[in-house]
């Protein structure tokens, strides 16, 4: 009965790793994967995560019962504090509802499903370019997806004018997806002054902000600094949604731990919104898994573990920043034609190199270097040892 099923293409991002795994060259290099690697190219489990897990194993009160539909209560409270700030008036006034979801993706999907059922304007604006899963998540939830200009290939920076024009022309009430920090794939973020202009424009038009926060702490190494754009939107008293992921900043990729928060006008509205979120979640997966959320809650509520986490997080962010500098220096030393300063200006896990899809194909074929076809490379996949190989490949690609 399934004989007529046609083969689907590989996922454009995860498919890069599939191709990498098939390559038998000893020099192969995977810069496609959006996951942190050590200087030795190995995945990293944070020490503080191991410690929290040990703590959970030793605690006999830890059981494996179902969590409530909305997840672990402590985890939800602490997650809201992490993104909105401990002193957030919205939290103090109990007008935020937070539900534990399946990492960032699940949080976006639950938020989108809620909006499709209960919000009056079903159009969402996403930046061009954006993370490839965004349009699929929102389309499948039943929202109509439109785009706003974001990246300017000429400057390899923000097209701020285009962004303001497109959001200015959006219908009143439209939803706007904003990357909270470390925009994926471009590594280009607005400055705080630009965020303030975006906020004013969006509030004046009643546009609804939906923040995707997948990299808090990864952009600057500082959790509060990276949450600043979200906090300025919450500080004005207006509504917003925020999807948080602990995949990158705690290295909990496969634990699938994240949270969706909806900031409402009043406590009463927030509690009604939460009651509807439960109706979205229950038929999707009933309730979320307990282990990852317990790890996060253990770390966030213990002062010492929290501090240890921030040190390990900063070390990851700093290694990425140092890779940017090393790659930039190596290209400059080699005299590779072109301005490569965007490598050190962009932030977060990725560099949007500006290499085109033909150059990417060439680098994969001749140098066994894997990346997405838009020229995005994961700086976290690079090390001091592999910088020269990548430099040679980029040089060859642009001088061909
Ligand atoms: N949003 C963005 C912008 C991302 O880059 C990612 C991870 N690649 C996610 C959301 C979601 O990731 P996860 O579901 O693993 O938390």
From TrEMBL:
Gene Ontology terms: biological process: amino acid metabolic process
A Gene Ontology molecular function term of the record: pyridoxal phosphate binding
One cellular component term from this protein's GO annotations in UniProt: mitochondrion
Top-level EC class as recorded in UniProt: transferase
CDD domains referenced in this protein's UniProt entry, alphabetically: AAT_like
Any Pfam family matching the protein: Aminotran_1_2
EC number of this enzyme: 2.6.1.1
Cofactor: pyridoxal 5'-phosphate
Keywords annotated in UniProt: Aminotransferase, Pyridoxal phosphate, Transferase
Presence of the UniProt keyword Phosphoprotein in the record: no
Catalytic activity: L-aspartate + 2-oxoglutarate = oxaloacetate + L-glutamate
Superkingdom of source: Eukaryota
Residues of the Aminotransferase class I/classII large domain: 27-394
Residue stretches spanning the membrane: none
Record-linked SUPFAM superfamilies: PLP-dependent transferases (SSF53383)
Family named by the database record: Belongs to the class-I pyridoxal-phosphate-dependent aminotransferase family.
Subunit structure: Homodimer.
Additional comment: In eukaryotes there are cytoplasmic, mitochondrial and chloroplastic isozymes.
UniProt-listed PANTHER family: ASPARTATE AMINOTRANSFERASE, ASPARTATE AMINOTRANSFERASE 3, CHLOROPLASTIC
Protein name (Swiss-Prot/TrEMBL): Aspartate aminotransferase
Organism: Dipteronia dyeriana
